[in-house]
Amino acid sequence: HNTYVNAYAGRGELYMKNGEYEKAVEDFKKALLYPRNLGVGKPFRVNLARLYFKLGSAYEKLDITTAREYWRKAMEERYPVVSENYYYKGMCLKKLGKENEAQKLFNELIKTGKEMILKNKTEAMGYYLLALGYKGKGDEENAKLMLDKAFLLNENITRLARKIAEIVVYPLDE
Fold first, then answer.
1. Are 143 and 131 in contact (CB under 8 A)?
2. For the chain, what percentages of helix, strand and coil (3-state, to nearest 5) are there?
């Protein structure tokens, strides 16, 4: 199912980049589905903050009311550990004008990333979380630096490859 989601989300990002917002919305919505032919049912815990942020960002160009609905849906998501979902929830909070709440999530990403690196200097995920925290705070320079470090440590992390394209090359939050 991850390949299915990433394929539609990736194409949706390209549509966004090209200003084709209706097509982006269609693909982001498809990424939320669990088609029967995949043979995979919806798991108990699903991480949807990323897709809700992207849907809201696409709708922002079409219908701001619907955009806000998707950003609010991301606020309903609960995650037991600090992860990239904090970044997307933070970005949704920013879009909804809740800057202080967003900064708390970005600070938590930075704190957790630093703690991971203190325990293990070769922990790619720690640098990845730092990159997301810095990106959310608008510190592009440190975000790129941390993302490069993470990728050098583990170039096989799919999320990092996606982030290279999204954060550094095609940012969706501008």
1. yes
2. 75, 0, 25
